[in-house]
Amino acid sequence: MTRILLLLALATNALAQEAHVDTGSHDWDYQLMFQGRSYTAGAMAQAAFGHWFLLWGQNPLPKLPPIGPPESGSPNWQFGYIRPVITLQSAGVMNRATAELEFFPISIFGIAVGQGMHQRPNFSQQFDCKLVSCSGWLNRTSLRGQFLVGASGMFAAFVVRREWVSSEDKSRPFTEEGMGVLGNTGQDSLITATWAAGYQFHPKWAVGAQVIRGAALTHPNRSLTSALFLNYIRGSTSYIVGGGSYLSDFVRPGFTMVTMIVFNGIRPIGFL
């Protein structure tokens, strides 16, 4: 990990020497989100608060709308930044808090390291809570990487997150209801990989497809969500609806409807 961060820092320094830097550019941002799915049924609200610091290049925000891509032309992607961010998530009976440090040597590629706590209820639609640990606290350490490309209205993104998760219950396997996987007794490593691609056919409209795969490594099991989506942007808010399939090693495959609403109170500097 130290070697990777050092190489990225050296690359960032080389880019900064060749580009104009908006010296001292930094700002706060915040974003609110709601997402839900019909199978297995669940919904969650999220609030993220960050503070970005430009490392090199020019601040792209003055030429960007409150959310989404620019209405004409290509966005400035030649910049790098770091961004501490705190994310709070709640489904009422389930609550989670995560602190991360994002490092993007260039705007379309970056990594983030994080630490979080996750409180769960003694309830599950996918697991038998008499046999496995559904409730109590999970401690989560994470490493995330993401890559984004786009041209002529087309876009694609890949995000992978690895988490080292420990449960306060050391006697039984633990559940991760959102991912639909079961962790090993006491602790496990979880991976979530997300692929998305689409086409923006109008400044306010886009269509695409998304695949999300979750897996536990020590206690091998997995889940898969595949969906087609339609995205509409109005003002500072993005509305996404879609439909597809959900399956895991613990529930039968089924059709699921997905929805997401994202509001940028103050737009973050990144593109995802």
Summarize the structure.
The protein has 272 residues and is mainly beta. The chain contains one helix and 14 strands. Residues 1-20 have low confidence and may be disordered.
General description of the model:
This protein has a twelve-stranded antiparallel barrel. A two-stranded antiparallel ribbon has the order 8-9. The chain has one domain: Porin (Beta Barrel). It is globular and about 55 Å long. It is mainly beta and 272 residues long. 22% of the residues are buried. The protein has one helix at residues 2-17; strands at residues 26-38, 41-57, 79-90, 95-106, 109-120, 136-151, 154-167, 173-176, 181-185, 187-202, 205-216, 221-234, 237-248, 254-266. The longest helix is centred in the N-terminal third of the chain and has 16 residues, at 2-17. Residues 1-20 have low confidence and may be disordered. The protein is 6% helix and 63% strand. The protein is built from one helix and 14 strands; from the N terminus they run αββββββββββββββ.
List the keywords.
272 residues; mainly beta; Porin; disordered N terminus
Shape: globular
Unreliable spans are 1-20
How many β-strand stretches? 14
What gyration radius follows from the Cα positions, in whole Å?
19 Å
CATH architecture: Beta Barrel
First-to-last CA distance: 23 Å
Percent range of helical residues: under 10%
Tally of helical runs? 1
The major beta sheet can be summarized as: 12 strands, antiparallel, barrel
Q: What is the count of structural domains?
A: 1
Q: What CATH first level would be assigned? A: Mainly Beta
Order of helices and strands: HEEEEEEEEEEEEEE
> Mean of the pLDDT scores?
90
User: What name goes with the CATH superfamily?
Assistant: monomeric porin ompg
Kindly estimate the percentage of residues that lie in beta strands according to DSSP. over 45%
The CATH topology label is Porin
Strand order of the largest sheet: 1-2-3-4-5-6-7-10-11-12-13-14
Give me the secondary-structure category. mainly beta
